[in-house]
Design goal:
alpha/beta; 3 domains; 21 strands; Methane Monooxygenase Hydroxylase, Chain G, domain 1; single chain; globular; about 450 residues; Rossmann fold; five-stranded antiparallel β-sheet; ten-stranded mixed β-sheet; binds magnesium ion
């Protein structure tokens, strides 16, 4: 794999033209101990399902199986299935609850293996707690099938209930209050990242924070992760050009909400008077006001986030800002990719051997239509055998290659030989992407990120 930096480019981006860099907070600027965090969401969702939706209390024994899900899976609410699909909506792996669905069964359920993602029965799982959400759905479907067929609602209602408890856990602060009380367990401190921010600011870039989190939570997390490492200013409010909390993205990019100004000492709010000012903290607002207040050129702002829908999809569709995505899964995927490389090479060698045999088989089969020559038949059978032998060699290599990725779903970014739907979304809406914001901050602020020419099938 050719790689000279850890920032990957979908669309050419010249950092010299970028004056403003906007940062999302959760999972972008502030990194979480993901497994602990998903585990917390899983537990709180279970408690709420029992308390508010009357689910059997036995579900409280369920434990998060972190490997059970990856981001970008599609939830089929009607049949209780989880699907991994390609960019074209082709199903490549599927599970009903916790059980793998065989290809023949999958074909029976979905007739063609392609699905239309605009169908309301399907939900693409790209929520903040994708893993906890998808795992819990699979576990609950399994419990309904095998233990509580009467006590638990239909699959579609289970999905609805999960959405409800997840929303509630966000709204009633139950997740955030636990995080605030146990910062060390859930939040990662990173001195290098703060150094990178200071370096970019010293180089003339204006960095601002644009987060959906409320002020008290933002303050709690940034006081913990940023303040201890600052060398040029006394707190994060001074570090950032300005801060916008409770931004309600993606509405921030499409609606015309008013800005409120927050007093960082007291947390009190009042309507913003005048233009956005350096060092101040705001709540809500919208991209249109921000752009006009600061007289921004359409493409001098780069926004870096981690959530495909909330941070980049509507931003890319509605505004001219450039986009970057932090994709935590990427480092593990690249590691697996490197380990799997020898197996991929062997598979490719075998496929190169197989191709001329298949061509010869096609030719022989055409000749056999017009002549019943016994020698041709013998040769045909010999070639078929050779192809079968190669297939026998390839199958275990494919299995071996897959072992370096998620045991249930394989690669996050590939679905068979095609890109996964998740990778497709990322490619479509993020100009650049990386596994950690730090990877970006290690690059020169003058970097010219060039995309490579992607060959079309006929150009290969
Ligand atoms: Mg985020």
């Amino acid at each position: 794999m050719k790689q000279d930096s850890n920032v990957f480019v979908n669309r050419t981006l010249n950092l010299q033209k970028i004056n403003y860099i906007g940062l999302d907070m959760d999972h972008t600027l502030v990194k979480y101990h993901s497994e602990n965090f998903e585990c917390l969401a899983h537990t709180l969702m279970l408690e709420k399902l029992v308390e508010t939706k009357g689910y059997p209390s036995e579900i409280l024994d369920l434990e998060l199986q972190y490997d059970r899900a990856i981001r970008g899976l599609v939830l089929d609410k009607k049949f209780g299935n989880l699907l991994k699909v390609s960019r074209y909506g082709a199903i490549r792996v599927s599970y009903h609850g916790l059980e793998n669905i065989s290809f023949s069964k999958q074909k029976k359920i979905y007739r063609s293996t392609y699905i239309d993602l605009s169908d309301p029965n399907y939900d693409v799982i790209d929520t903040t707690f994708s893993i906890a959400f998808a795992t819990l759905f699979a576990q609950l479907v399994d419990l309904k099938d095998h233990k509580f067929p009467q006590e638990m609602p239909d699959y579609a209602v289970i999905a609805e209930d999960l959405n409800y408890v997840l929303d509630t856990a966000h709204r009633d602060e139950s997740i955030k209050s636990v995080v605030c009380e146990n910062l060390e367990k859930y939040i990662i401190k990173d001195k290098e990242l703060v150094e990178g921010l200071e370096y970019y600011i010293k180089s003339g870039k204006k960095i601002f924070l644009l987060t959906n989190s409320e002020f008290y939570y933002t303050k709690k997390l940034l006081d913990y992760t940023i303040n201890p490492f600052l060398t040029h200013c006394s707190n994060w409010q001074e570090l950032f050009e300005f801060t916008i909390v409770f931004a309600q993205k993606p509405r921030f990019f499409i609606d015309q909400l008013n800005f409120l100004e927050i007093d960082p000492e007291t947390g009190k709010m009042e309507n913003k008077s005048g233009k956005i000012e350096k060092g101040k903290v705001y709540q809500a607002g919208c991209e249109t006001t921000l752009t006009s207040d600061l007289n921004l050129l359409p493409d001098e702002t780069l926004y870096i986030g981690d959530h495909i829908y909330g941070d980049v999809v509507l931003l890319k569709k509605n505004c001219a800002w450039r986009t970057a995505l932090v994709v935590e899964e990427l480092s593990k995927e690249i590691e697996g990719f490197k380990k799997a490389e020898p197996y991929v090479e062997k598979i490719e060698q075998l496929m190169d051997k197989k191709h001329p045999l298949e061509v010869a088989l096609n030719r022989l089969s055409a000749e056999l239509i017009s002549s019943n020559d016994d020698q041709l038949k013998v040769r045909f059978d010999e070639l078929m055998l050779e192809v079968a032998e190669i297939d026998k060699e390839v199958s275990p290599l494919i299995r071996k290659q897959q072992e370096f990725f998620n045991p249930y779903w394989g690669e996050t970014f590939r679905s068979g030989i095609e890109e996964s739907y998740f990778a497709h979304q990322m490619e479509r809406f993020a100009c650049i992407y990386m596994s950690d914001l730090k990877d970006f901050l290690k690059m020169s602020p003058r970097s010219y990120f060039r995309s490579t020419k992607r060959p079309l099938a006929h150009e290969l």
